[in-house]
Amino acid sequence: MAQETDVLVIGAGIVGLSTAYAITRAAPGTRVTVLEKESGPSRHQTGRNSGVIHSGIYYRPGSLKARFAAEGAAEMVKFCAEHRIPHEVTGKLIVATERSELPRLHALVQRGRENGIPVHELGPSQIAEYEPHVRGLAAIHVGTTGICDFGAVSERLALLARDAGARIRYGAEVRVIGRRTGGRAERRAPEVAVRTADGEVVRARALVNCAGLHCDRVARLAGDDPGMRIVPFRGEYYELVRDRQDLVRGLVYPVPDPAFPFLGVHLTRGVDGSVHLGPNAVPALAREGYDWRTVRPAELAGTLAYPGSWRIARRHWRYGTGELHRSLSKRAFTDAVRRLLPEVSAEDLIPAPAGVRAQAVLPDGTLVDDFLFAESPGMVHVLNAPSPAATASLPIGREVARRAVAALGAVRV
To answer: Do β-strands 379-384 and 201-209 pair in parallel, antiparallel, or remain unpaired?
Structure first.
């Protein structure tokens, strides 16, 4: 017999779990079910990121990323404090190491101020006061940046959602999605039917797609054209050996290239005291391709057949060549780190687990640079939620919940 629910959420990453929890708060009594193909929460983007609570300084003023990151950073710190989740507001340095980067650094100061983020400009001697082993021509200090354990945040959101009545099913991969296409429904008649890999059928009045690396595929399963495709980029990390971790006190970033969505190789001291270096960004050969050995031919063929992939390659080939070089050469990666941290050597670096970024790409090769949501009758799709989505997960969850509850209202008419 099929299970019935009001809202069905696909994906138990931090965004899906935040959404489920937000629905239970916005509309108490609403039946919420979360389906997740993995055996636990946040096994992909959320569980493999650097754990940074981003301030929102990089993002275009007025964008969803700028607004939700600034709101989300403050809320995330408060959430972690309330639930005793490891966290720390460390602040961070964004460091210019070449004169050509100084105009971009000054532009970031202005952008930070436009986004309401406190920033302070530093000279070389002031950089050393924060990070004695870091070298640069100039820097800015962003005081609202921090670190936390986003995996623990996800687990707490899952617990809160369950306590409010939500049902979370792990090991439940969605294989088929059907929906009503016409006619006048009963007031509480299900509008969506989902079948999982083990044959279970769940009927819902509204569906929320938070499938991350697979969100475009889930949208198409539901009969919607997302107008984009997820092109996976692997972020490769090293970490400092234990007796060299004192080289980095907090968070140190290079000045980013505004033409590309990645922040460059940076230095991150986590809540456990380890220091991660990276990520290096290279194309992944599978949506969950965490190393060069993981290849899924059907997924790779889909990426290669997508016009947007080739247009990205033509537009950013020079940048991409540098990333590939650092992926294949530890010495080249070390040289990138040494721009910020001159004392480090290749022997100080050991491999750390990689992550994969679910980057939405338009057919013309444009990399979607803001959070992207799409809706159709009874459906809400989260189509682009890479970094800083973990930071912004609480306001994102409320926004998606608002849309999902509105979709329920539309079904009732």
So the answer is: parallel
Tell me phi and psi for residue 412, to 5 degrees: -70, -20
Question: Cα–chain-centroid distance for residue 146?
Answer: 16
Phi, psi values for residue 6, rounded to 5°: -90, -55
Give yes or no for a contact between 285 and 297, defined as CB atoms under 8 angstroms apart.
Answer: no
The token pair at 363 is 């057919």
What sign does the CA torsion over 173, 370, 337, 286 have? positive
How many angstroms separate the CA atoms of 197 and 152, rounded?
Answer: 28
Q: Which helix (H) or strand (E) holds 103?
A: helix 102-114
Do 140 and 121 touch, CB atoms closer than 8 A? yes
| Mean local confidence (pLDDT), 363-385 | 96
Residue 262 or residue 145, greater confidence: 145
Identify each DSSP E strand in 67-200 by its residue range: 87-88, 92-96, 119-122, 138-142, 146-148, 167-170, 174-179, 192-196
CB contact set of 29 (below 8 Å; sequence gap of 6+): 165
Helix, strand or coil, per DSSP, at residue 366: coil
Q: Cα(234)–Cα(306) distance, rounded to whole angstroms?
A: 18
Angle at 355 between CA 221 and CA 290, to 5 degrees: 80
Q: How confident is the model at residue 190 (pLDDT cuts 50, 70, 90)?
A: low
Closest CA relative to residue 150, chosen from 17, 34, 42: 42
Whether the predicted model's global pTM rises above the 0.85 cut: yes
Name, in order, each residue with C-beta under 8 angstroms of 202's C-beta and a sequence gap of 6 or more: 2, 3, 4, 5, 8, 33, 35, 193, 194, 196
Evaluate if residue 28 carries a pLDDT over 80: yes
